């Protein structure tokens, strides 16, 4: 798919004070950043974690060179998982590996240890994601409970009370109903995306157990990323609509209630940020875990070639 082709990019010596458009929670000058041929800049780690990445995340201009020629003979042992990386009709991989000394038992032991450590770290970070997600659910419930209290107070207002707050541009009661409906619809959308995202997180977190699951694992990765972006933008939009509704409450209800809602919404936004940060670290760890597994599998395959030839 082109994801293993070399990335054509240069290290950015003086990155601007702008947020990376991939992770969107860390600025470019806070980590190693790369400039693509199209001129767009991203964190190197953010580019690396997109296993199917072929083009700029903004303009989609291709930024990888041609795939390297890695291939193998059809004779000898041939693990199915290698087919996804180097189809068997290319005749070079086995020949090149046989020209190199096989990995020692100590080297394989090191790779096994690295893989195990990567698995444990990924499991720990996945649990961190779930913990922050639980905190977000709690913060969101508090926000929605406070919003419902204010909504009930607004429903109890008489028409005369509403008329007292009307402006020349738009009836404040009409504005309130419009924002209330928009927030309700956006809240349902966030719930749907959140459900899909939690499901895709669990699917992508699983380590492929056989060769047939390798491509499905890549699909899970792409799907998790797409749903995460949709969820991120829906959450931001929900916060904006909520703040607009909050301004209406500020004009018609006691300030102490609207201030409490502002605090709740701030806590919810902070919880969303912590979830996003935890997911970012987890994605990088999954990438490192899968890479460690590939290195171990290749070393075992390399060693098996010599055992087979004997």
TrEMBL record:
Domain RING-type: residue ranges: 20-60
Protein known as: RING-type domain-containing protein
Gene Ontology molecular function terms on file: zinc ion binding
Entry keyword annotation includes Oxidoreductase: no
InterPro entries, sorted: Znf_RING, Znf_RING/FYVE/PHD
Keywords of this entry: Metal-binding, Zinc, Zinc-finger
Gene3D superfamilies given in the database record: Zinc/RING finger domain, C3HC4 (zinc finger) (3.30.40.10)
Record lineage: Eukaryota, Fungi, Dikarya, Ascomycota, Pezizomycotina
PROSITE patterns: ZF_RING_2
């Amino acid at each position: 798919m082109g994801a293993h082709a070399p990335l054509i990019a240069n290290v950015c010596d003086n990155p601007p004070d702008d947020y990376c458009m991939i992770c969107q929670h860390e600025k470019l000058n806070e980590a190693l950043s790369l400039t693509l041929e199209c001129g767009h800049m991203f964190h190197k780690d953010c580019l690396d974690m997109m296993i199917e990445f072929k083009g700029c995340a903004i303009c989609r201009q291709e930024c990888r060179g041609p795939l390297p020629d890695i291939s193998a003979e059809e004779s000898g042992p041939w693990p199915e998982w290698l087919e996804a990386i180097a189809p068997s009709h290319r005749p070079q991989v086995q020949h090149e590996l046989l020209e190199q000394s096989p990995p020692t038992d100590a080297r394989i032991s090191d790779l096994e240890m690295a893989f195990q450590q990567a698995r444990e770290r990924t499991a720990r970070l996945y649990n961190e994601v779930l913990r922050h997600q639980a905190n977000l659910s709690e913060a969101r419930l508090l926000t929605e409970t406070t919003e419902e209290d204010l909504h009930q107070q607004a429903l109890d207002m008489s028409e005369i009370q509403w008329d007292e707050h009307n402006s020349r541009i738009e009836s404040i009661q009409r504005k309130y109903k419009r924002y209330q409906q928009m927030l309700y619809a956006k809240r349902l959308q966030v719930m749907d995306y959140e459900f899909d995202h939690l499901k895709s997180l669990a699917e992508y977190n699983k380590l492929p157990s056989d060769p047939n699951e390798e491509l499905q694992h890549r699909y899970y990765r792409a799907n998790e990323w797409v749903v995460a972006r949709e969820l991120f933008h829906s959450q931001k939009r929900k916060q904006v609509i909520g703040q607009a509704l909050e301004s209406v409450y500020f004009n018609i209800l006691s300030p102490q209630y609207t201030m409490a809602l502002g605090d709740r919404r701030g806590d919810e936004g902070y919880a969303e940020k912590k979830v996003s940060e935890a997911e970012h670290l987890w994605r990088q760890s999954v990438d490192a875990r899968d890479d460690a597994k590939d290195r171990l599998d290749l070393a075992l395959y390399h060693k098996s070639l010599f055992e087979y030839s004997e």
